Amino acid sequence: SDDESTPIVILIPGLTSDSSSPELRVQGSNPGEAKRGWKVVVSNHRGFGGVPITSDCFYNSGWTEDTRTVVNYLHKENPRAPLFIVGTSIGANILVKYLGEDGENTPVAGAVAVCSPWDLLVSK
């Protein structure tokens, strides 16, 4: 069906943002994406979005495993759907690091890094 091939956009938030943040609600309800019927997923950082931390691992700007898990899960569940990722701020840093680590092995069709703090030591 068409639903199986509907593109999916994954949003990776900035430092203190999550799926309830106003800026992500605007991105997630982008009229262009909605008009096209694209699905939007927000990948909340651990401990954000009202979800308690239940593991020994905390979110940090270099942790790409959660992004990898979200991407792989969505690809497995929707193998015909193109996956796109938009990361903002620290989310952009995580996105670029993930893409660099996985290279051609990632099922991501396209990605946008917005306002990435390329050098976190200089960005403080």
Automatic annotation (TrEMBL):
InterPro entries given in the database record: AB_hydrolase_1, AB_hydrolase_4_sf, AB_hydrolase_fold
A GO term for molecular function: short-chain carboxylesterase activity
Spans traversing the lipid bilayer: none
Listed Polar residues bias regions: 16-30
Region annotation Disordered: where it falls in the sequence: 14-33
Domain AB hydrolase-1: 7-119
Highest rank taxon of the organism: Eukaryota
Family, per entry: Belongs to the AB hydrolase superfamily. AB hydrolase 4 family.
Protein name listed in UniProt: Embryogenesis-associated protein EMB8-like
Biological source species: Trifolium medium
